[in-house]
């Protein structure tokens, strides 16, 4: 029983064999895949994909910090409409990216806050992209979370930090606020001891498994196109780090996803 909580199956690299990719994921025991939007086109595609695979694939919608040039009154209105579809689980991936700095920090922060407000309005969790921007991301998320009314659904399940790459110390205030943390392929890389150290310290009850496919292919498959069927490689490493069986780790992390996203599907 596995879940891939962050993938990009609408990517052109899946154009020729997407049905086979989805079939392989099902054969490997996946019960949930969440396709994440990064702009309007991919958000729309995520919703279409989820509608075509109802109950198995779901969608996140939003504007990645490197795509915020598309965020305007019209596109925000469209996101609001899409967010009403039951296949949409979260607003994401949104956040800050100071690695590429495609847009100035002030503009990224503005777009980030606008989409956080949309998530609060639509009562949806958020999925956060954070690259070399942890301090600002944490500050903005905690401010947003603090200002949510006590009875707001996202007070208890605010969202997830996609492919978390910073330290456990930086994660602690977000853990206390109720956030979850995506663990992806780099946890398996031999040159990523810091990633393993943080993953080992994170509470297993706050970990989500994700491939971010077609990116971040886990070891020993690096160099190949990533796909949801490879989640097993990530689960195996998380299980090793937490001294659990693969089966127990898969069950806990999959249930984490169902809890965060308020899914009513029963898994066993």
Q: Describe it for me?
A:
- The chain is an alpha/beta fold.
- The chain has a single domain (2-260), classed as TIM Barrel, CATH 3.20.20.
- The protein contains 10 helices and 8 strands.
- The chain has helices spanning 18-27, 40-52, 73-82, 105-122, 134-147, 153-156, 168-177, 193-201, 231-242, 246-260, and strands at residues 2-7, 30-36, 57-61, 88-97, 126-131, 159-161, 180-183, 207-209.
- The chain is globular and about 45 Å long.
Give me the side-by-side strand order of the main sheet.
Answer: 1-2-3-4-5-6-7-8
Radius of gyration: 17 Å
Helix content: 40-55%
Structure classification: alpha/beta
- What's the helix count? 10
Estimate nothing, just give the exact number of structural domains: 1
What overall geometry do the principal axes of the alpha carbons give?
A: globular
Which regions have little confidence, pLDDT < 50, spanning 5+ residues? none
The count of β-strands is 8
What is the H/E string?
A: EHEHEHEHEHHEHEHEHH
Any guess at the CATH architecture? Answer: Alpha-Beta Barrel
């Amino acid at each position: 029983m596995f879940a891939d909580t962050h993938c990009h199956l609408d990517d052109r690299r899946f154009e020729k064999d997407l049905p086979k990719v989805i079939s392989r994921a099902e054969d490997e025991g996946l019960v949930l895949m969440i396709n994440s939007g990064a702009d309007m086109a991919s958000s729309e595609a995520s919703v279409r994909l989820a509608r075509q695979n109802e109950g198995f694939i779901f969608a996140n919608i939003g504007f990645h910090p490197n795509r915020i040039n598309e965020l305007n009154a019209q596109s925000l209105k469209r996101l609001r409409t899409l967010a009403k579809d039951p296949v949409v689980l979260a607003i994401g991936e949104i956040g800050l990216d100071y690695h590429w700095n495609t847009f100035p920090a002030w503009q990224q922060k503005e777009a980030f806050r606008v989409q956080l407000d949309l998530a609060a309005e639509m009562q949806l969790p958020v999925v956060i992209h954070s690259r070399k921007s942890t301090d600002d991301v944490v500050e903005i998320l905690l401010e947003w979370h603090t200002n949510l009314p006590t009875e707001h659904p996202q007070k208890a399940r605010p969202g997830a930090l996609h492919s978390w790459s910073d330290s456990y110390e930086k994660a602690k205030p977000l853990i206390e606020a109720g956030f979850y943390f995506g663990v992806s392929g780099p946890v398996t890389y031999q040159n990523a001891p810091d990633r393993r150290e943080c993953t080992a310290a994170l509470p297993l009850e706050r970990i989500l498994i994700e491939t971010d496919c077609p990116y971040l292919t886990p070891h020993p498959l690096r160099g190949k196109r990533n796909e949801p069927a490879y989640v097993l490689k990530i689960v195996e490493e998380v299980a090793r780090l937490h001294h659990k069986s693969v089966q127990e780790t898969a069950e806990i992390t999959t249930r984490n996803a169902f809890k965060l996203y308020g899914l009513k599907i029963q898994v066993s």
